[in-house]
Design goal:
Layout: H1 6-17, E1 29-33, E2 36-46, H2 47-50, H3 57-73, E3 81-88, H4 94-111, E4 114-122, E5 127-135, E6 151-154, H5 160-170, H6 176-187, H7 193-199, E7 203-208, H8 213-224, E8 227-230, H9 237-245, H10 250-255, E9 263-267, H11 272-282, E10 287-293, E11 298-302, E12 305-308
Length: 319
């Protein structure tokens, strides 16, 4: 009997907890308390599956924070507070603990929230669970709101993190002018918080892309019950050159990488100019990559030819 992967495990728990409408698959959870709405995001980092070789302890701490910040950013929610639960291996030194703490402190300052508590325990490896909280005072875009004729946009290029991981883990080669940017995408990812806070009100649907662009587009297409037509690869000449140098598939680098922390969203054509202005103001290099049509599935269209974009990326217990 096949063991369940991350997606299937989530569905099992959702089915056990009650009515489906309380557990819609999305980047955040929204709870109504009194007259207000409370936003919660939880994410876990496990050293053996989430930390590449060479990542420093303060970078590990920051990465665990970035995962939650990015999910809030794609919904236009400002992070306010966080709790952190730590699993620490036996023999972890005071210096190492201080490096982790410093990473959390710097990340809290960088993204403007307060760490208000947490828990610690012994574990076989570093495990970090972050729960982040915010308030929803406006309409929040879901994954399922894409409309026919909407434009599909990303908040930045894809392929840098996947290229960086190939350099770090597999010894792939890169030009000296590009290698720092590839490695920074791995060791210091940049969630698009400023852009998301201002632009989310114009999103008909949105999702964080950290599991991979293909998975993100597929989830949004399925939940919106629409066809997503991709006509433009959201990438750069640096990634294209890296693919050629290493005889790698450019499409796989762009669609299947994961760990990108970009916002993928759909925008009504009438609102596109407003989103472009916000992108310019916040220094966000948005890419207009396609459009939404009636139908289902995610396809790539180029020079009159179309092909189905296969679902690929990162899924725990499968990848």
């Amino acid at each position: 009997m096949k063991n369940p992967d991350e997606t299937e495990i989530i569905k099992i728990f959702q089915g056990s907890f009650g009515k489906k409408r309380h557990f819609q698959a999305d980047d955040i959870e929204i709870v109504k308390i009194g007259q207000g709405r409370f936003v919660v995001k939880s994410d876990m980092l496990v050293q053996s599956t989430d930390v590449p070789q060479g990542m420093k302890l303060d970078q590990i701490a920051r990465k665990s924070i970035v995962s939650c910040v990015s999910d809030l950013a794609c919904k236009g929610i400002r992070p306010r507070f966080a709790t952190i639960a730590l699993g620490i291996p036996h023999g972890f030194t005071k210096k190492e603990t201080s490096q982790l703490a410093k990473g959390f402190q710097k990340a809290a300052k960088e993204f403007g929230f307060k760490i208000i508590g947490g828990d610690t325990n012994q574990a076989r490896e570093i495990i970090i669970e972050v729960s982040m909280f915010g308030a929803a005072n406006k309409k929040i875009p879901s994954r399922s709101g894409a409309k026919t004729r909407d434009i599909i946009i990303t908040s930045g290029p894809f392929g840098y993190a996947s290229s960086g991981l190939k350099i770090v883990l597999q010894g792939y080669k890169s030009d000296s002018s590009s290698i720092k940017k590839f490695k920074d995408a791995v060791f210091r990812p940049r969630p698009r918080l400023d852009f998301g806070l201002e632009a989310a009100k114009y999103f008909s649907s949105s999702m964080d892309s950290s599991d991979g662009l293909s998975i993100t587009l597929d989830d949004m297409s399925r939940q919106s019950k629409k066809r997503f037509v991709i006509t433009n690869l959201p990438t750069t000449s640096q990634v294209t050159k890296f693919a050629l140098q290493n005889k790698s598939s450019l499409h796989r680098l762009v669609f299947c990488g994961g760990e990108e922390y970009e916002i993928v969203s759909t925008v009504h054509p009438e609102d596109l100019s407003k989103v472009r202005k916000i992108a310019k103001k916040t220094g966000t290099p948005i890419y207009e990559i396609g459009h939404v049509k009636p139908g289902n599935g995610t396809i790539f269209s180029e020079n009159g030819k179309t092909s189905k974009i296969k679902r690929c990326g990162w899924t725990h217990l499968r990848s």
